Structures are given as C-alpha cells and as structure tokens.
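Exercise: predict the fold of this chain.
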Amino acid sequence: MNIFFWILQVLLALHTIMGAVWKFKNSAEQTMPSLKAIPQGVWLSLSVFEILCSLALILPVFNKSLGILVPLAALGIAAEMLLFTGLHFASGHKEFGPVIYWLVVAVFAGFVAYGRHVLQPFVIGGS
C-alpha cells in the first residue's frame, strides 16, 4: 500500500509542477477564459504554491519527519482545483470539460491526503 501511495504522490507532484511551469508561461485568461478574474500576481503566486506542494509531496523520501506535509500539500492542491471550479461557475461559463478535469484532480489529491493521513501514514519501506 505504501508503494501505491508513493506512485500517486509522484504522479500528483509531476502534474502539479507541470501546472506551475504552465502558469509562469501563460496568464490565467490564456489558460481558461473563466479564470480571468485571477490577477496576474495571484496567478504567479499560485505557481510558487504549486512548486512548494510538489516538493512537499516528495520530500518525505529524504526526511521521514516531513511526512506530515504530504496530506497538507494534497489538500492544498485539492483546494486550488475547487477554487478554479468555483471561479469557472461564477464566471457564467457553461462548459463542463475543465470542471470535470479540476474535480478529478481534486478527488485524486483528496484521496492522497486521506490515504497518507488515515490509511497509510507516511513510512519509508513496507508495502
């Protein structure tokens, strides 16, 4: 089970770091018109937040005591996806493609948070 959660953490970290790089290269409005309410400074701050979350998902491999960061980072990523969903609906857009994507990522991140906090608290080794 530990290996399973490590795979999920690495996948979530890769997804999130790619999103952070994307945010440095593209504005919120270029990414999704419904997100144009996010100021550029906040958009770039979200990039930094995503980089920190990505690091928090993988740092426990080097220092077991940092394991508490994993569920917190995953919850942060889930909250960001829910924020995007809320902004999309508030903007009046009716397309559901982005919403489905954001909600799938939020559920995935929520599962990692739940799994690392309740099902398999962070340990190195084991199964």
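Check your answer against the key: The helical segments are 2-25, 28-31, 40-58, 69-90, 97-119.
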